[in-house]
Amino acid sequence: MKAALFRGPGDLEVIDVETPSAGPGELKIRVESCATCGTDAKIFGHGHPRLEPPQIIGHEIAGEIIEIGTATSGYEIGDRVQIIAAVPCEECWACKAVKQGVCINQTSMGYQYAGGFAEEMIVPASVLKAKGVNKIPGNLSFDEASVTEPLACVLNAQRLIHVGEGDTVLVMGAGPIGCLHVRLARALGAKKVMLADINGGRLHLSANVVKPDRAIDMSSEDLATVVLEETDGIGPSVVITAAPSGQAQEQAIAMAAPGGRVSFFGGLPKDKPLITVDSNVVHYKELILAGANGSSPEQNAEALALIASGAVPVADLITHRLPLSQVEDAINAVTSGEAIKVVIKPQGV
Question: Could you say which architecture CATH assigns to the domain 2-147+314-345?
Answer without folding.
Answer: Alpha-Beta Complex (3.90)
